[in-house]
Amino acid sequence: MFRFLRSFAFKRSTSPRSVVVPPPARQEEERLALSAFATFDHAEFTHRTGYQIRDREYFLQAVIHRSYLQMCPPGQFQSNERMEFLGDSVLNQIVGEYLYHAFPVAEEGQLSKMRSRLVSRYALADCARRLRLEDFLLLSPSAHQSISDGSESILVDAVEAFVAAIYLDGGYSAARGFITSHLLDVFGGERISVDDNYKSRLLEYSQGRGMGTPRYVTIDESGPDHSPVFTVEVQVGGVPIGDGTGGNKKAAEQRAAARALGYLQSTESGSSLSSL
């Protein structure tokens, strides 16, 4: 994995695998005092993902978050945003191909909904956390903190960037193998046909029982501009019954709705049992 080492804090010998960061210009020494070198533990990446790397340069590009650039000489590195763009396209292509063959009688609208679930922030962030991909990323301290605070955007982007790196390094089949093992085998099949639009389900549940329309209130917003964390509370009949956090308001609202729906259903189930 990549490590950004503080040369003034301790010394560490380099290995042949090290990618040496050129020393900063004299006038930038204060701002770049932390610069030393970065290394990539390709063996650990292979252990976690099952993918055998050929050219580490693709993966060096994939792990550089834009927040890291503020600690680098101007123009020295490029962020992984271009890799994210490519990875998103490859991901959608592979997932679309999988769904087309896995659900031969599904209509276009159904396939689109299932693909949205498979490439959703929730699914990709879950994939990133299972593989602990944040360990490989080059980030600023504030970006690291935002992940600890629950932000998902950096994790989602990381999955897309790694998909691109694997695609460029090993081709379409390699990318498909990675996506199949770590996304489709986890969220595919029968699970993906389940409706996970909890806001819609909560609305149907509450209105069907005369509780009115749920109301969503943003109660907190934290984190840096490039990776905010929102906390949203959902109220039914003016009573708070669930909250959730996410990297955007939509994701936070879905989590709040899921908790609220679970609470209402468990309460209804308990009431039914007590009346027996």
CATH topology of the largest domain: Ribonuclease iii, N-terminal Endonuclease Domain, Chain A
The fourth-level CATH homologous superfamily of the largest domain is: Ribonuclease III domain
Mean pLDDT: 80
Alpha-beta content class:
mainly alpha
Topology as a string of helices (H) and strands (E): EEHHHHHHHHHEEEH
| Domain unit count | 2
Count of DSSP helices?
Answer: 10
Shape: globular
Task: Using the CA coordinates, give the radius of gyration.
Answer: 22 Å
Please state how the strands of the largest beta sheet are arranged side by side: 3-4-5
Q: Which architecture of the largest domain does the CATH hierarchy give at level 2?
A: Orthogonal Bundle
- The number of distinct β-strands equals 5
Flag low-confidence runs.
1-37, 272-276
Amount of helix? 40-55%
CATH class of the largest domain: Mainly Alpha
Largest sheet: 3 strands, antiparallel
* Separation, N- and C-terminal Cα atoms: 58 Å
Q: Would you write up a description of this structure?
A:
With 276 residues, the chain is mainly alpha-helical. The chain has two domains: 19-193, Orthogonal Bundle (Ribonuclease iii, N-terminal Endonuclease Domain, Chain A); 198-274, Double Stranded RNA Binding Domain, CATH 3.30.160. Helix content is 50%, strand content 10%. It is built from ten helices and five strands. Strands 3-4-5 form a three-stranded antiparallel beta sheet, covered by helices on one side. A two-stranded antiparallel ribbon has the order 1-2. A hairpin with a 6-residue loop joins β3 (215-222) and β4. The longest helix is centred in the last third of the chain and has 26 residues, at 249-274. The N and C termini lie far apart (58 Å).
